[in-house]
């Protein structure tokens, strides 16, 4: 291959990678896309679930008791959104709730965005 053809090939390869977002080599979460949480028993995930129930109790003057997170997804934003299904006890009866928590750990920030029974 001549030098000019070699440069053209490299330029086109680089352009394709840029247009494709480098997705062939990309392993990190896409900004804005929801991705399943692989290890739902991770202590941090369980902590986020417990935070959601505690915040809901404060906002709704309720007395739910957190039991566990049973499934969830994350979304990369300015920080991370956690969309979790948590089990909480309400007067001796266990129910499932979907909670969305926005976290910016570098700022010590967490916010309960929504909390609904499912």
TrEMBL record:
Signal peptide positions on this chain: 1-24
InterPro entries assigned to the protein according to its UniProt record, in alphabetical order: Cystatin_dom (IPR000010), Cystatin_sf (IPR046350), Prot_inh_cystat_CS (IPR018073)
Entries under SMART domains matching the protein: CY
Stored Pfam families: SQAPI
Domain Cystatin: 29-118
UniProt KW keywords: Protease inhibitor, Signal, Thiol protease inhibitor
Positions in coiled-coil regions: none
GO molecular function list: cysteine-type endopeptidase inhibitor activity
PANTHER family per UniProt: CYSTEINE PROTEINASE INHIBITOR 5
Name of the protein in its database record: Cystatin domain-containing protein
């Amino acid at each position: 291959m001549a030098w000019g053809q070699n440069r053209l090939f490299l330029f086109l390869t680089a352009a394709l990678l840029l247009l494709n977002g480098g997705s062939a080599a990309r392993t990190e979460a896409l900004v804005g896309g929801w991705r399943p949480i692989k290890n739902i028993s991770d202590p941090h995930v369980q902590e986020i679930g417990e935070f959601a129930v505690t915040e809901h109790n404060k906002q709704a003057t309720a007395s739910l008791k957190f039991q566990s997170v049973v499934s969830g997804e994350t979304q990369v934003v300015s920080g991370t959104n956690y969309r979790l299904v948590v089990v909480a006890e309400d007067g001796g009866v266990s129910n499932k709730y979907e909670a969305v928590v926005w976290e910016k750990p570098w700022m010590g920030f967490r916010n309960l965005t929504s909390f609904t029974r499912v």
